[in-house]
# Entry
Amino acid sequence: MAWIYLVLAGLFEIVWAFFMKKSEGFTLLVPSTITIITMIASFALLSIAMRSLPLGTAYTIWTGIGAVGAFIVGIVVLGESVTPMRLTAGALILAGIILMKISSSST
# Structure
């Protein structure tokens, strides 16, 4: 169950990163509100997952899901540039997430 909470926390991190961008520096009410609500949800789910997962594993995977997810949303939704270097960096982050999950002895 901890892994489910961790993945959900990571997904909420993607949402809050996107809406933080859309909030224009917290000057727009709706995107700012969504940012804050999803931040709280993300942190709450992360803290629940950390009850049984090691700190290093949980935090690394949480930030990795958020980083790769925000990277993909930036490209697909916001039209950010796609270069070989950026794709390689994203792939390396994803590889790190996978290796961290495989190396974790907790379930």
Notes: Helices lie at 2-22, 29-49, 55-76, 84-103. The chain has a mean pLDDT of 94. The CA atoms of residues 68 and 92 lie 10 Å apart. The first helix runs from residue 2 to 22.
